[in-house]
DNA sequence: GAGCCCATGTAATAAGTTACATGATTGT
DNA sequence: ACAATCATGTAACTTATTACATGGGCTC
């Protein structure tokens, strides 16, 4: 039930069509949550049926612009305040690293090096988002920057860890 | 197809029953991947049927000890060397933070404070794992420590970020 | 014999991915 | 006219969660 709330949150910021939301998932939210086109349209249908969002206008090409309803906003707030437990982590990348003893040390180092590269790419991507977004002093901008900063710090941590790890693998096995 | 490889990897380290593996998911792998009991037994059945693992002995209470086969080990290595793309991040916690502008600043700060606490708890948990595990100089110990270190750095980053974020929310809105 | 752990399995549901399928509008 | 982008939807499949269901063995 998380995509549900991601959609409600985006529509609470500003109304939009499925297509619009998809773009927002790919850019500002890329750091945070993702959705496929298929899943998104399905969820919009369900949310409308349950009255949490509504169609506010129809445009060309069957475009339907959705907006959050009062009920939807109430649901969003309830979700934000509800007691939560951090979900158990699930990282395919870390899983591979955990088992890297199964392959030759050279290959293991190479894997970690690629990991470092992708951390750098992510850092670059986040930096470009930071530049392209027009940060005002609205609530969403404040928290958007918080989340962006989280991503930057995360990418930096990954980079540093990877450098350290490559060295560690070298000294452990040559 | 990731649980599949998590199971293969664990059985490559040492044979075990479903129950054993479940324990290992909850302890050493807690940082990395998780599985429910239900999912695990299902996957063990499928892996056995496809010949990637086999039952090596049966014990009391219907206990079945599984071991990885040659074919299974080959599959594990292929997976480790296969080209990969980092999966799109999906963090319910960050998602909530992203939308925290919907609730009162006091509540937002409180949320971030709880986040910091859970980062500390994670750090403590990882430290206790580090102490309780008997690290030899095997491959799996080398990479196990790498992954554990990743977790420690991650927890530290979250803690620092949260402190900074609380301050940021305070100055932005009082 | 009571309680705790060991041990496995099934069924129903929810969530997410990939592929398929279609078509209108806009800008050049 | 052509290409790019806008725009929505369905079907089949895989993955993961929650709840149900059962029972043996060990220790005190």
UniProtKB/TrEMBL annotation, chains A, B:
Coiled coil: none annotated. One of its GO terms (molecular function) is DNA binding. It comes from Amycolatopsis jiangsuensis. Residues 7-77 form the Transcription regulator PadR N-terminal domain. InterPro entries: Tscrpt_reg_PadR_C, Tscrpt_reg_PadR_N, WH-like_DNA-bd_sf, WH_DNA-bd_sf. The keyword Transmembrane does not apply. Keywords: DNA-binding. The keyword DNA-binding applies. This is DNA-binding PadR family transcriptional regulator. Pfam families: PadR (PF03551), Vir_act_alpha_C (PF10400). Residues 90-169 form the Transcription regulator PadR C-terminal domain. Gene3D superfamilies: Winged helix-like DNA-binding domain superfamily/Winged helix DNA-binding domain.
């Amino acid at each position: 039930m998380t995509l549900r709330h991601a959609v409600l949150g985006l529509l609470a910021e500003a109304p939009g069509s499925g297509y619009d939301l998809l773009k927002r998932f790919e850019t500002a939210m890329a750091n945070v949550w993702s959705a496929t086109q298929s899943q998104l349209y399905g969820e919009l249908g369900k949310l409308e049926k349950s009255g949490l969002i509504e169609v506010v206008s129809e445009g060309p090409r069957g475009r339907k612009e959705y907006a959050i309803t009062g009920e939807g906003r109430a649901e969003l707030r309830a979700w934000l305040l509800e007691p939560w437990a951090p979900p158990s982590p699930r990282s395919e990348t870390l899983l591979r690293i955990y088992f890297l003893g199964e392959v030759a040390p050279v290959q293991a180092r190479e894997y970690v090096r690629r990991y470092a590269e992708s951390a750098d790419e992510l850092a670059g991507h986040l930096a470009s988002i930071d530049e392209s977004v027009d940060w005002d002093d609205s609530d969403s901008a404040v928290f958007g920057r918080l989340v962006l900063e989280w991503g930057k710090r995360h990418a930096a941590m990954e980079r540093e860890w990877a450098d350290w790890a490559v060295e560690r693998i070298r000294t452990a096995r040559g």
